[in-house]
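Sequence, structure tokens passed on for absentees:
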Amino acid sequence: MSETKVYEELFALAATGSMVTIQRTCGERKHGFVAAVSHELVLLRQFNDFHPDGLCIVRVADIEEIRSNTEERLWEKMLAAEGVLDKLEPAPELPIDSMRELIVALHERGENVTLECEFPADATEEDEFFIGRIETVEPNCVLFRHFDAEGDWDDDACEIEFDELTTVQIDTPYCRTYSRHLDPKDPG
């Protein structure tokens, strides 16, 4: 599927408010509602089973298939019947014309986020998952302070190139829960 076709289809789905399932060339399949789309990125209000799972921004270039059919219509009905959709707050307006522009805006917000660098299943590289804080935004990369599964902050920020970033997630229950229980002092 061409990037233009992906953009056009996502743009139409954003206008209708329909749920989608997105299959990508790398990483996991994503389920949710398209909140915004540009030619480079799509912002999804993602769901994990029947629960809102924050906001997810993925690259349009990585999308190989979009599904929005009877399965998604059934999910919409179930979520509406359970009152889940009525409780959702509007997605924040974020600049999604480029990954760098998005990262700059998230840096200004100052909240913890997750960043992922994902590769196709047949690649020799392993996917990388980072959770923490954006420290500095450079022209071609972000300096990111990561914390581990024990809640310990890395001593130094790692450098992540924008062209390697495939997924950015904000306001997820996973990240919010960890963030509430971290050492409140500024890392580093």
Q: What stands out?
A: Strands lie at 19-24, 30-37, 41-48, 51-59, 63-67, 113-117, 128-137, 141-146, 158-161, 167-170. The chain has four helices and ten strands.
